[in-house]
Structures are given as structure tokens and as C-alpha cells.
Amino acid sequence: MDASHSSLPHVVVIGGGFAGLWCTRALAREAVRITLIDRTNHHLFQPLLYQVATAGLSSPDIAAPLRHILRRQRNVEVRLGEVVGIDSVRRSVQLADGTSVAYDYLLVASGATHSYFGRDEWARVAPGLKTLDDALAIRRRVLTAFERAESASSEDERDAWLSFVIVGGGPTGVELAGTLAEIARHTLKREFRHIDPARAAVRLIEAGPRVLASFPESLSEKARAQLASLGVTVLTGAPVKAIDADGVEVGETRIASKTVLWAAGVAASALGAELARAFSVETDRAGRVKVKPDLSVDVESRVYVAGDLAHIADGDRMVPGVAPAAKQMGAHVANAIRASLRSARPQPFQYRDFGNLATIGRLAAIVDLRGLKFSGPLAWAFWLLAHVFFLIGFRNRLVVMLNWAWSYWTYQRSARIILGENSPPAARDS
Amino acid sequence: MDASHSSLPHVVVIGGGFAGLWCTRALAREAVRITLIDRTNHHLFQPLLYQVATAGLSSPDIAAPLRHILRRQRNVEVRLGEVVGIDSVRRSVQLADGTSVAYDYLLVASGATHSYFGRDEWARVAPGLKTLDDALAIRRRVLTAFERAESASSEDERDAWLSFVIVGGGPTGVELAGTLAEIARHTLKREFRHIDPARAAVRLIEAGPRVLASFPESLSEKARAQLASLGVTVLTGAPVKAIDADGVEVGETRIASKTVLWAAGVAASALGAELARAFSVETDRAGRVKVKPDLSVDVESRVYVAGDLAHIADGDRMVPGVAPAAKQMGAHVANAIRASLRSARPQPFQYRDFGNLATIGRLAAIVDLRGLKFSGPLAWAFWLLAHVFFLIGFRNRLVVMLNWAWSYWTYQRSARIILGENSPPAARDS
């Protein structure tokens, strides 16, 4: 089969996210063989992951098997595995199963995970949202909290189960808070007998001075107002000091809560440190690799970094960790490899910023298209169309549209199924 | 709220399956208060569970939150909990969380689980299919097996990963075997580079003389032929002697296989033994409770059993453990409770047998409508319509129909997402 023509240059891509997948696809007609390695069997449409966490969509709606996406691209081999080391001398990557894979070109696009700023013990009590497994764990916690509130034996216990705290006022935190408020106020209406879910307290806590800080101040203000009208209490300038199973400490205040979700910190994949070790490149505070203008770790190495793992300047700020940037970087690395194969000079990466969107909840979003700013229902419709349009695969788009049309009219959420409740404790808390 | 009018007679229903839910709904206009207790938050449409296991449907397609189904029935309170004991003197049930719930009327409809005939160590290597968590575990195993085959380092290893054994030739075993063969031959086509998934061996092993033994012999023969044409090797008269992580022993033969699925034995819920202890009723070999003709454990107790947990005769055979029988029993118990409230005599339960269907795979099924027998594409269409029609909730029906239409034309299966692969080993094997 094509992919095993071992005389062709071997491109190894680590990570099947936006950067890795876009690079792989862009090399479809090149005389190379590609091995795409991922820890999971699927490409994940991360921008809609919060919808899985909040029971609006099912896992398969926003994920597709990498093998299936790439089945017709005969120069690619997909491999399920976890890369644990990179050997710059032998030019190979080591997998957790003990095997190694030699490369001529290497793209490391293993993305980011959440960071607890050195307080890793918070992970158990305040789960973050990066993978489908994370999303299902959050869904389980949120739905179970209402069940526990219903059967609580005291007022205090009930209130603690009806108290939700989201730490971090970035896009994920805002989406989670807005959607949770909608679930409490509308979705669960009439379903309980001892509690009124609409009385649930949803608090969004941000250490900095405003939510959605990557947007202009005026849009942050709009977002805050929209969150308030959905029923979310927004606390800014409020750094979290402690989190335990019964609540959070914010400044001098303690908030009782049985359900704390973490949307605050991002840390680059551990392969950033591995690249720093192997190629003597620098990393930034979040562990991202400071790449050369062509996205390589050094111009001779033929080793590249793209997506959330890459640190690269865009004028006086950094290229943001968003899907369009990752796709552009992936495509750029494909071009750099193509140039190298033809002994041409690599071009520097140029980020094309098409704008910035964030959704908040039903009919609530903000949009900043390079100066054209708007918010509210129109922004929400714009966000919806943009996201459904970019979903991979026609079937997914159709199902997601149908799901949303249904949810919109009925306020219902189709995926309100608690899974894993009979699993051992280790699984329940994973 | 209505459900807390404590002066009304209290009906406690254990289990939100077909029997429990149908009884609960039938009492909607009765002057009672009902507490429905279930270990999970959802009603599960069990006849399509194999589709979740084989990645054709998502969990929410075949499950709906009990609270949501019953939100408008104000005399019901839904409680998430596990019943661990029944006290016939105090007339109360004990929950795992230490609380207890008193009843005036009790319906125990906690169903069945799989039985390994005393070989519980087989559970780890040969998972069964009763819950959504089971289905996701089987899906993970099956999809992972093809991944492992692709990266196998020897022929023997590859063949063992491409060898699937299903133990038990009842409806679940036949559905799993037929669908697995379809996945191997069609769904995964072109997606791998080192293996040909179509060469996977799918074996269905049945200890008795024929598959689908609850059907007439001629239809069993048709089913066997349809399985063979889908690519399944059927072994009958083949009792399993041993199962381990590397294969099964059948008679004198050893079959190497990394993926063994269990569809052989059914055991009643542990509450059967609890009822036997508390009310001195008999249970059969599978642990089902031998109930009185009105489905009570004794006519005075006002304690009833329905669904897969009940053992009751239908002429010279037993009422089968199928969804229509469970619904009928649930509705009958509602009538018995209504009669008791009016001090009327209870009627004996009469099973109305509308026929028996089993699906085998694409365009393959058998139907036995009280003598009118047919098989093949027509039987498959009949099965499809009957199952989609009985799915709870309009949205589910629509999504499932769309999913199936899509799968039918493309051979694709939408839910091919391996979840939980980064969970701790305990979770992976749960």
C-alpha cells in the first residue's frame, strides 16, 4: 500500500487536532508517506465540546474517527498511540507501548491541557474540559448535582448541591456558565418535586478585571450584561485561593458549592518540555514552544510545532490558541515541508485574523470582526452558522442543526444521560 | 406538590424499565402518590442497546431521563437510588445511601443482569450487555481490537485481535455477531493500512442445538443461513469450557481471540433473592420470583413483581423476558393496585403474544407472528419499523431513523468514538 513505500520521505504528525489534521490533508498529493499518531481514535471539534458537557450534543456529533476522515488519502497511516519521547539524534519518536517511529519530518501538534497553576490537587474537585472524557465527567457531575439536591436532607446540603461555580472567565467558562444557567432555569422545569432548579446559583469567577479579556472592553461589558440576564452571577477581580469538595475560597469569602468546574488555566502538552530538552528550544510560562518564524524548532531540524503548543508572535501580541490559527499553522507546516522537499526557502508564518467570536447562551454571543462589533441574537446566529459550517462531515452538521433546532424550540437537551454511575470510583472521578 | 400529599396511598416502584414505567404511567389519574426509584437517571430502550455497543447509535438516542418522561405526571416523584433491602414487616425499602422509603403498595421491577453460570471471573474478559455503560465498554473493546490488529507485530497477534467470539445464540448474540460482521466487511473498508478488516473472523457459539431457540426450527435455520451470508461462523452444540484474555475453549478446541463478548446467561436482579427472603416466595434457577397469577408475591401483601424478574406461566411455557411482556405486566400491576384501592378482586395476568422478531443484520431478520413466518429484507423492514415506532419520544425516533437511513446508504456508523481510553485501568475494564 502507498503508505508503506519506505523510500519516500516519512512525515510523522503527532496529534490529530486542527493543526495535525490540516497539515496531513494538505500533503495529500505530495510524494511522502505520513504517519499520524494520536492518543484517541478521533478528531474532536473542540469549539463545541462544552455542548457535550452540558448535555446538548452527544460525543459522536462533534467527533469523527481519524481513520475515517483520512480513509481515501492513501499516503497516510493513522496510528493510535501516545508519544512519550523524541530522540533528536536518531530522529525518532518513542511511543508508550515501547515501539519507536523514525521520521524525516516531524510535526508536533499535541495541543494543550488545563493547568491548575501548580495546585494539581484541585483537579479532583474541579474538573476541566479538554477531552470528550472530560465532557462526560462534567455532564455526570452537573446532572447528578440536581439529583442530590432533590434528595438532600437539609437546607444547607440542598443549597450546596444547587450552587455551581465556574472558575475562569474565558470563552469556555462563559459558555459553561451561560448554558448551566439555561439548564437550571428552563430545561429542568417541572421535573423535580422537592427543589426548584431555577433557584440554582451559577457563579462565574474571574481573577482578572473582566470576562472574555481577548475581546475589546465594550464587548466584555456586553457579555457580562448578557450573562447577568441569563441568571449568572459574574465575579471579576476574584482570584481563587482554595477549592475543596464543599466549595471555593475567593478572597476572604467562602462559597459553598458541590460542583466547581475549572476553565482557568491552559498548559501546553508535555511534549513541549520534551522538545525543549531534545532541541534546546525555549518554552514560555505555559510550556508552549517558542518556534522560529517558519514554525520549526530550528531551520535545519525539519521538526515543526503548530497549534496550541506553538508560541509565535503576531505583531505585538501572540497568535491566539483558537481553531483557525491551528488550521493555518498546520497548512503552513505542510508548505514548509513541501518547500524543504524542493530545497526552497521556508516562508515565515503569517496569521490571518478573521475575527473573534464567543457564545454565551441562548440568543447571546459577542462578535468582533476586526473592528465590526456586535452582540445579542444576531451575534448568536452568526456564531451558530460559523460553527456548524466548520463541523467536519455532512452528517454531523445535519444532526447538530436538528438537535439545536429542537433544543431551541423545546428548551430540551437531548443528551441528559448520566453514564458511568455504576463504575468503580476511579472511573467516576476520571 | 401533589406527590407529597402524604395522606394518599404510597406506591413505590423499583426500576424504571418497561414494567416499572408502564405501571407508573397507568396510575397517572389515580389518587395515589408514586415514588419511582432507579439506579440510573434514564429509561433505556433495551432492544436497541446492541446498536450502541456496535457504534450505530449514541446513548441518548435510546435513552431518556425518567424525570423528563414523567415531568407532567404530578403524582410521581423520581428518585435516583439503589434499593438494597426490603422490610416486609415495616413495609419499607432500604436504599444504599442509608435512607428508607415506606410503601403501601410495592412493585419490584428491577429486571435482570447477565449470568456467567458461577464463573464470575469470565466477566472481566467477556463483558455482557445490559446497561449503557456495558454497551460503551463493548464498543471500546471492539474498536480498539481493530486498532491493535493494525499495530500488531506478529501474524498470530494480528489474527487474535481480528478474531471475535460471541458466546450465546439468543437475540443479543445474533444481533452482535451480525453487526460485527458488517462492521468488519463494510464500515471499516479502506481505513487500515496493515490489515484487511474484512478478514476478521466472527464466531457465534451456542451451547444448544440451534440459534434463536425461542423461534420455530425453520426460522432458526433461516437465521443461521443469513448469519453465514453476512460472514458469521455459527457453532452450535458448543458449550464453552473456559475463557481467558487470549481466547475460549469450546469442547476440545481452543479459539484464539482477544475479544470475547458474553450473551449467554440471564440472571434475575438480586432483589429476587431479597423478595424470597422477605416473603418466603420461591425463585426459579435464574433467580426469578414465582409470582401469583395476579403478579403479587402473595395476595395480601400488596407487593408485586413484573418484567424480567417475574416467573409466570403462559400455558405450558413461561412468559418470555421481552419488552412487550414487561409493559403488559406493568400495566397489569397498575390494574391490580386500582382494584385493591376499590377493594375489588384482582384479575389474573394474561399474556397477549403478538409475535416474536429478531434482527440479524443488514436486510436480515426473522419474524414469527403467531404462525405467519417470514425472513430476509421484509422481516428486517418490519423489525425496523416496529422498533423505531416503540422508541420513546418523537425526537429519538427522528434521530434514529435519520441515523439508520444514513448508515444504510453509506455503511457508516456514526458513533465510532472510543471513549475512556485515557481513564485509569479500572475504568477501562468496567
Structure description:
- The structure is a homodimer of 430-residue chains.
- Chain A is an alpha/beta fold.
- Chain A folds into two domains: 142 residues, 3-Layer(bba) Sandwich (FAD/NAD(P)-binding domain), CATH 3.50.50.60; 221 residues, 3-Layer(bba) Sandwich (FAD/NAD(P)-binding domain), CATH 3.50.50.
- Helix content of chain A is 33%, strand content 24%.
- Chain A is built from 13 helices and 26 strands.
- A five-stranded parallel beta sheet of chain A has the order 5-2-1-9-20, covered by helices on one side.
- In chain A, a hairpin with a 4-residue loop joins β7 and β8.
- Chain A starts with 9 loop residues before the first strand and ends with a helix.
- The C terminus of chain A is likely disordered.
- Chains A and B meet through β5, α5 and α12 of A and β5, α5 and α12 of B.
Number of helices of chain A: 13
What fraction strand of chain A?
15-25%
Q: How confident overall, as mean pLDDT of chain A?
A: 91
Overall structural domain count of chain A: 2
CATH fold-level name of the largest domain in chain A: FAD/NAD(P)-binding domain
DSSP, total strands of chain A: 26
CATH class of the largest domain in chain A: Alpha Beta
How far is it from the N-terminal to the C-terminal residue of chain A, by CA? 39 Å
Low-confidence stretches of chain A: 421-430
Topology at a glance:
Two copies of one chain form a homodimer.
Chain A: E1 10-14, H1 18-26, E2 33-38, E3 42-44, H2 49-53, E4 63-65, H3 66-69, E5 76-80, E6 83-87, E7 92-95, E8 100-102, E9 105-108, E10 112-115, H4 122-125, H5 132-150, H6 155-161, E11 163-167, H7 171-187, E12 201-205, H8 217-230, E13 232-235, E14 240-244, E15 247-250, E16 253-256, E17 259-262, E18 265-268, H9 271-279, E19 289-290, E20 303-305, E21 310-311, E22 313-314, E23 317-318, H10 323-341, E24 356-361, E25 364-369, E26 372-375, H11 377-390, H12 394-410, H13 425-428
Parallel strand pairs in A: 1-2, 1-9, 2-5, 9-20, 11-12, 11-17, 12-13, 19-21
Antiparallel strand pairs in A: 3-4, 6-7, 7-8, 10-18, 14-15, 15-16, 22-23, 24-25, 25-26
Helix pairs in contact in A: 1-10, 5-6
